[in-house]
From TrEMBL, chains A, B:
PANTHER family: CASP-LIKE PROTEIN, CASP-LIKE PROTEIN 1U1. It is found in: Cell membrane. Homodimer and heterodimers. Regulates membrane-cell wall junctions and localized cell wall deposition. Required for establishment of the Casparian strip membrane domain (CSD) and the subsequent formation of Casparian strips, a cell wall modification of the root endodermis that determines an apoplastic barrier between the intraorganismal apoplasm and the extraorganismal apoplasm and prevents lateral diffusion. Residues 22-169 form the Casparian strip membrane protein domain. Belongs to the Casparian strip membrane proteins (CASP) family. GO terms for biological process: cell wall organization. Its main location: membrane. The gene is LOC109725791. Pfam families: CASP_dom. This is CASP-like protein.
Length: 185, 185
């Protein structure tokens, strides 16, 4: 009798609730794919950046590569790790579209999403700080703007930040979506 | 009859569930207070950093302040904003200890926690990138390590990162805790 009563109460509002939960899960999958493209693009754009200047002295050829600066290496690593994580999380996201009432798998996703959000933000903003320095330099610390010489290098590294920052926004929305799905149970 | 049945089903497992939820909410409050102390300490430590070297030429007195570098100003602002947010979120956290079944207020907290996590991580890691540069310099970009001259300045700015990074870990745990409380409904 008890079981029946609860089941009745559930079925009366089930189709709509399931529809919203399924919509949430599909949106989750789309956001995950977009974040994946963003981080992959950022990692590739930064990882393939190098510029050789068309003049050189006897001893030095002027050349700039992303891994001249450890921060950019960290940026590539962070984006790659988050990208791999997103690929691995896609099957779980698809499971959530089918099994809309899953709870603990969503909880695990939220935790790792938050950790990956922190990693991605760390990489992107550390790189942004160095890119800013490359553009503007700093008079007080006597650090010169290197973008005057390495122009296309600078454009490339600045551009590669965009995908990463877009992915950060996606990740925040992903956390919210998973939490929203949990709150609706 | 239906209402009664559901109520019966709830009361049988209610005391334990409520106890766990209350424990989660208390842990949430403690983590929030710790993160608050971390960000406040970081903001104050960085904001009060300056060093005047004991020698000067006719024209220049050698002096280093945190706001010589825009990244450190951003670090102070980010930490202050997160600190104010944490203060404002404490009343809500206390409400959750009393009303353990609150759902949508937890959802709002998760969203803002995630956004603040991103802001705090951005500030902390941008500052970390510059601190790293101040310590090590970069030969390829011709940026010199300034820590040889400004020794105590560098120690202070390095130290002020600790509170921020500790707060980042607290924020990740806070998001997980709120999601855990939602999953248990």
């Amino acid at each position: 009798m008890k079981g029946e009563a609860i089941e009745q109460g559930e079925t009366s509002r089930a189709p709509m609730a399931r529809g919203i939960n399924r919509g949430t899960s599909i949106l989750d999958l789309i956001l995950r794919l977009l974040a994946l493209i963003g981080t992959l693009g950022s990692a590739i754009a930064m990882g393939t950046t190098n510029e050789t200047l068309p003049f050189f002295t006897q001893f030095i050829q002027f050349k700039a590569e992303y891994n001249d600066l450890p921060t950019f290496t960290f940026f590539v690593v962070a984006n790659s790790v988050v990208c791999v994580y997103l690929v691995l999380s896609i099957p779980l996201s698809i499971v959530h579209i089918i099994k809309t009432r899953a709870r603990y798998s969503r909880l695990i996703l939220i935790f790792f999403d938050a950790a990956m959000l922190a990693l991605l933000t760390a990489g992107a903003s550390a790189a942004a700080a160095i890119v800013y320095l490359a553009h503007k330099g700093n008079v007080r610390a006597n650090w010169f703007a290197i973008c005057q010489q390495f122009n296309s290098f600078c454009e490339r590294i600045s551009g590669s930040l965009i995908g990463s920052f877009a992915a950060i926004i996606m990740m925040i929305l992903l956390i919210f979506l998973s939490a929203f799905a949990l709150a609706r149970h």
